[in-house]
Amino acid sequence: MRPVQALTLLGAVALLGLSLPEQVEAQPRPEIKVKTPITVTYQLVSRPEGDLLAAKPSEGEAVNTPLGCTGQALRAYKGALYVACGAEGLRVYTLADPLKPRLEGVRDLDGEVVGLFEQDGQIWARLNRTAAVPVSRPDGAAALTDRERAATVEVHLPTPDTTPQPDPTPQPDPAPATPQGEVVEAGGGELVITLGTLHGVQKGHRVELYLEAPEDLGGGQSAIREDRLAVAEVITVSEERAKLRLGLNESVPVGALARPTTRALTSSLVRPPRVSGLYETSFVARPFFALGDFGVGMVSDAGFGYRSENIHVLALLEPAGIGLAGDGNIVAFAGNLAVAYDTQMFEVGLGLGWSAVNDSIEDGFAVAASDSGGGVTPPEFDRVRSGLSIAQLVRLGAVDGFNLTVHNTFLVFDDQFNYGGTTAALQIPVADRSWLLARGGGGVAGYAYGELGLRVLVRGNGGSGSIFITPSLGGAGLFGEKETTCTGYNYDPNTGGSTTYEYTCVEEISYGGPMVGFGMEFRH
Q: Which of 214, 232, 261 is the last residue of a domain?
């Protein structure tokens, strides 16, 4: 090599502050020992299928973790493990679980990371970079004159001292690692995790359940984000496994991570999480005996709906009633299709439907003089039988917590709005899976009821496959009209006498009595 070329190369290396690539493969694989309650030695292991990060405790078998890159060097420092991966950057692992290093992030240092060393209380990465400089000018002349070469030679940049220096500050012993487990079974509001008494977990302890996901931070850097799902209580524990009970409507998938915690439980009686992506089917039957008359009746309702992220679509049949008695039979019916904006703590919506009318919204009677003798014609009546209904839906509070729900209906008749009826329900949590329910209402469809019930979750945890039942006690009734024959009188002023006649008229009927109700809800 010519002197000029040697000097030029030396100057370029000095100016860039670079070091020559290390021959890592020619040296023995480094071993790093970390003091924990047990001593763990870390080593890079080459395999044809890919390099491994081996963690070998002082007692027992080594635990291998796929590295995902070609390891060049590694170094442990203050609860973290740094691995040089050449052109693939620098990988940083946390040693919360010494036998299972967890990847925290990958850094791109704009060069091949070929070594690691400790200096001034920090971990430094040794880089190998490739640089290009021109050696001739466009006209073909040499890029540097003799004087310029001499000046270049005389420039000396200090080479950093890469010799590891001892840290004069005494470092405290690392805190005991928090054990980490995994959810291996899930269903019915209960979980099984791979943590037990050998990991310090006892009955009544709390466990945090979470998922990890990579997140890009920009600038060639990334990190691992933790998304907390729930904090649950241990109800049964063995040496290596534990069973947890989730709160109402809480859901944790198999494969989620678990670790002991002192955080408060996330379950709530008043405002449990809202479930979505489910269909809901419900019905309530309220049979009753008519008092004062021989007859029976039933005031029922049914619903079918779907809850998406923030929308609730509901088809509601309220009421679906029928009464059979000596005074006459009554059929009460109303149905609406509604769409509501639905969140965890409130819901508001509108709907359209149709309603039967058994009440006397408007009866018009017309009386006119006869053409002969001043007589009176029989009265005529115009009865409203049914009408278009507009429904309002409002809920304040969580669906499966404390809430007040009100449904109002209005009828469109004779070019005006008429009040159609109201039903309301107050729900009060009394235990983990039961609620006190006070419900009642009525309307011009010809029904009225009031009841006190107990809503109980008998299957599931509030999600898909859950079943609720609601037994109740109260009173119910039906009312309406029936056609009958009435007698009228015509007075003749000429003779002073009168004649009788018969005509069709309307008679109001109603009956009710104590009722026993039973309802069910299905989520699927």
A: 261
- Closest to 466 in 3D by CA, of 303, 309, 280, 341: 280
Residues 285 and 414 in one domain: yes
Q: What CATH code is carried by the domain that includes residue 209?
A: 2.40.10.410
Would the CA dihedral through 29, 35, 36, 39 be positive or negative?
positive
Of 453, 502, 504, give the one whose Cα is nearest residue 481: 504
Write b or e for each residue in 203-231: b if 16 or more Cβ atoms lie within 10 A of its Cβ, otherwise e. Answer: eebbbbbbeeeeeeeeeeebeeeeeebbb
Q: 312 and 220, same structural domain?
A: no
pLDDT, tens digit (0-9, with 9 covering 90-100), for 321-343: 888 888 788 888 899 999 999 99
**Is position 241 within any domain?**
yes
In a domain, 11, yes or no: no
User: Do 354 and 400 fall into the same domain?
Assistant: yes
| Statement: the pTM of the whole predicted model exceeds 0.70 | no
Are 220 and 349 within one domain? no
Nearest residue to 336 (alpha-carbon basis) of 408, 258, 255, 436: 408
What is the tens place of the pLDDT at every residue in 414-427?
A: 778 889 899 999 99
- Residue 155 in domain: no
Higher pLDDT, 268 or 168: 268
| Domain end position, chosen among 235, 261, 287 | 261
**3-class DSSP state of 454:** strand
Q: CA 444: distance to chain centroid? A: 40
Question: Number of structural domains, the chain?
Answer: 3
The more confident residue out of 77 and 431 is 431
Look at residue 151 in the predicted model and tell me its pLDDT: 37
User: Which among 474, 39, 84, 503 has a CA at the least distance from the CA of 284?
Assistant: 474
Closest by Cα among 394, 314, 395, 388 to 352: 388
Helix, strand, coil fractions of the chain, as percent rounded to 5: 5, 55, 40
Distance CA 335, CA 386 (A): 12
One domain for residues 245 and 299: no
SS3 (DSSP) at 75: strand
Question: 221-237 and 181-187 as β-strands: parallel, antiparallel, unpaired?
Answer: unpaired
Burial of 465 (0-12, 13-18, 19+ CB in 10 A): middle
Can you give the length of the chain in residues? 524
Pair 330, 434 in one domain: yes
Q: Is the Cβ–Cβ distance between 286 and 517 less than 8 Å?
A: yes
Q: Which is nearest to 348 in space by CA: 405, 305, 401?
A: 405
Question: Residue 98 is part of which domain span?
Answer: 19-130
- Rounded-to-integer distance, Cα 53 and Cα 55, Å: 7
